[in-house]
Design a protein that fits this description.
- The protein is an alpha+beta fold and 106 residues long.
- It has a single domain, classed as Alpha-Beta Plaits, CATH 3.30.70.
- The protein has three helices and four strands, in the order βαββαβα.
- It has a four-stranded antiparallel β-sheet.
- The radius of gyration is 14 Å and the shape is elongated.
- The protein starts with a strand and ends in a 5-residue tail after the last helix.
Length: 106
């Protein structure tokens, strides 16, 4: 099943490194890098307010665990945000491409 994963990162270098790694390993068909994300969150007893980038990763649900492992190897955060969502619908041509460029279930 098609799946989208959101990952926040601290800088563009990390974003590009993760995106290229996931696409090269066919764990993702595409990764969008969205700049100028502002994250307000609770961490170590305090409210934090930080600039981040958001990765929108197009993958498959059965690839999530491997994708998460690869991201955790690269990601500089102690607790990186890696959250996934099933896709209910998409354009047929885009869905076909998505299926072709990600690893098949083995």
């Amino acid at each position: 099943m098609r799946f989208v994963v959101f990952i926040t990162v601290p800088d563009e270098e990390t974003a590009v490194k993760i995106a290229k790694e996931l696409v090269q390993k066919k764990l993702a068909g595409c990764v969008n890098i969205i700049k100028n994300v502002r994250s307000i969150y609770f961490w170590k007893g305090e409210v934090q307010d930080d600039p981040e980038l958001l990765l929108v990763v197009k993958t498959k649900d059965y690839l999530f665990d491997k994708l998460k492992e690869e991201v955790e190897k690269i990601h500089p955060y102690t607790v990186p945000e890696i959250i996934g969502f099933h896709i209910a619908k998409s354009a047929e041509k885009y869905a076909k491409w998505w299926d072709e460029v990600t690893l098949e279930k083995v």
